[in-house]
Amino acid sequence: MLSDTIAAISTAVGEGGIAVIRVSGPEAISEAAKLLRSKVKLTEADTHTVHYGFIMDPQTQEKVEEVLVTVMRAPRSFTMEDVVEISTHGGVISVKRVMDLLLQQPAIRLAEPGEFTKRAFLNGRIDLSQAEAVIDLIRSKSDRAFSVALKQVEGHLSREINDMRYTLVETLAHIEVNIDYPEHDVESMTSEFIKERCSKVISQIERLLKTANEGKILREGITTAIVGRPNVGKSSLMNALTRENKAIVTDIPGTTRDVIEEFVTINNIPLKLLDTAGIRETLDVVERIGVERSKAAVEEADLILLVLNGAEPLHEDELALIEGIRRRQVLVLINKTDLPQELNREVLRQYFEEGQIVELSVKTRDGLERLEDAISRLFFGGKLESGDLTYVSNVRHIALLKKAKQSLIEAYEASDSGIPIDIMQIDVRLAWEQLGEVIGDSAPDALLDQIFSQFCLGK
Fold it and tell me: pTM of the prediction?
């Protein structure tokens, strides 16, 4: 409830220079003032001021922690409520002691996950698409993903959605006038007006949806499975891309027995790398389990990096693997080009296009840049669009935009079929509502709870 005062730790758990506890609600300042000893009385402090002092135990009057307390009065705060942020030393114990004292105050309760951001939405500071972008901002794994999320937090997508909704509201108003006062209008003229407005909004939606694939990749990353037979250099490739020794590398076949995961950013594209066990027939029980997990990882992957040993002829296990993945998003990496070559490239060209085949030597690092460029070309045509473009990256937003587009297509087609305009009005209004769901104008409570439950406790 918005009448409650809530508190939570807003920084990560563990040791650090400082930790921050956030308190928000009508009693935030008065309740924090009961625990703070400082030169300035907190209840009389100006907004956006910082005060040095000590948190005191009200029962024993012992000093609990040395703190800096920031006061932000409503509505000039993130939640548009009175907010107090208490900066403590970053140890686990110091934060816990201050937090325990706050929660002993009768007017303060522990915040739910995402409740600060939810209050910012409910109080009208941000809309739902901006609130969802906050979590994207926190989880960004590349500079580009961060920039996309920041533009959404700033309201770039919201403004485009509101612009489309305004066009549809004008259309609905025109239809209402025609229905209520038919003697002052010509229905054929109204039908043309509906077609023109629907066409305009459809074009705007299509422009946003063109960015959906790239936006989703920037938001979620590309799940990338590194596959191949044992000892072709899969783990060495993982280490080269992450620039760390994440995977054990030996000359013994079958060293990798499980799927190793790691995030890496290549040309501003986040990749979730999966280093898999070498795929081959084996009698080793543990290795066989690893092979089955490798096959499962291949099924889930958005991108498959098939690593082959250029110093050996193709093996029948590799031909079987190629047959199974040839219609997926695949890059074939011919490794060990620093050794005398035995692999027949012509066989590979029967299955893959020239741009899908990359020759490299992980040992000498020759060809790694070609691999990075190939990944960019495969998913973004070689480059990302300009920074001025508004990307749609949220799956919920994409689904609603597609529904709104279909509703408008039905209204457009109805105008050519002689259907009465009051029937067309239903589809136009439905599109207006579906666009409203993107920014939370008509979002049900259950959806809000589900969205904000994904946030961390102090956000």
Answer: 0.72
